Amino acid sequence: MAWNEPGNGGKDRDPWGNNGKQQGPPDLDQVIRNLSNKIGGLFGRRGSDSGGGGGLGSFGVIVALVIALGVWVVSGFYTIGEAQRGVVLRFGNYYQTVEPGLSWKATFVDQVFPVDVESVRSQPASGFMLTKDENLVRVEMDVQYRVMDPRDYLFNVTNADDSLHQALDSALRYVVGHSTMDDVLTVGRERVRQETRELLESIIEPYELGLAVLDLNFLPARPPEEVKDAFDDAIAAQEDEQRFIREAEAYAREIEPKARGQAKRLLQEAEGYKEQIALRAEGEVARFRQLLPQYQAQPELMRQRIYLETMEEIYSKVNKVVVDTPEGSNNLMYLPLDKLVEQNANRVKKVDPNIITSDYINGIQQQAGSDSGQGAGSAQGTLRPTGRN
Length: 389
Known about the structure:
The protein is α+β, with helices and mostly antiparallel strands. Helix content is about 55%, strand content about 15%. The protein has helices at about 10, 30-40, 50-75, 150-155, 160-175, 180-185, 190-205, 230-295, 300-315, 335-345, 360-375, 375-380; strands at about 75-80, 85-90, 95-100, 100-105, 110-115, 120-130, 135-145, 210-220, 320-325, 330-335. The strands form four sheets. A three-stranded antiparallel β-sheet has the order 3-2-5, with no helix packed on it. A three-stranded antiparallel β-sheet has the order 6-7-8. Strand 6 and strand 7 form a beta hairpin.
């Protein structure tokens, strides 16, 4: 028979202890009272020593404490971004620096200050400044920096960003005050930027701001409006100067290799000409040395031979032929070779002066004689006397 079977048979098995009395749900107050007594026993108290109201109050306090403890634990979880670092203070003193990710802190005990260490920040500085030559210019400069040490950035000075701004303004005014107006506006801008950066780093170094200067951007400086047009013309002239210089350098780079090649070619030609002349001179010397024994043996014959060879070489380079007139005449006649060549173009298309020999001249003389025999007027028109007796 089941334990909850109705009737007398199941009343002894009633879990609620009714023993056959009227059945119903248990009293909630009684359950809480029993639980409170058991918990109180754990703390050294007996459930019978305290009244029902006192037990219920103690349990509520404990539950509240447990809930408060859970809320306190849960509230301690926090997250640090990937580009951040967390500076943890415990009771107001520096405790540690937390890396990115999920972390836990003791609420009301620890304080966490996240600091962005990856982003590049900028701080401007501008204003009218007096130069070394007592001119007034408006200068604008922008510094780019990044946080390197979060602890120093937060606690070494009151406001690191404002301190950097003041240091930049001070360094810029010092450098501009020791530079001329032309340097600030035109040619000395890079020097002003570099000196300002070096001075800025030396100023902020003792303060340990936890910042690293990445770069300085020197924006275009402007003169007073009264002389702005004149300085614009000066800047334009300097830009034109630089452009002309670059064009000249480019032209020099283009011409220089050609000039070097031409010079090298001339040197090689000169060396070749030198060797040619030297070899020719050596050949002439060798030829004269070969002729010397013959000249010593028959001087008159060799003298006549040398004369004829020399005259042959000279006449081979002119376009006129000198012929002797018939015996008994004292006139030396010139025969135009170019005219004869034109008349004999159907037989000889090209005449090389080097082939003109004594036989060739004799043939031309015979042809000239035949032409003069046919008409004296024609011969007189082509031959002129030289006046030699």
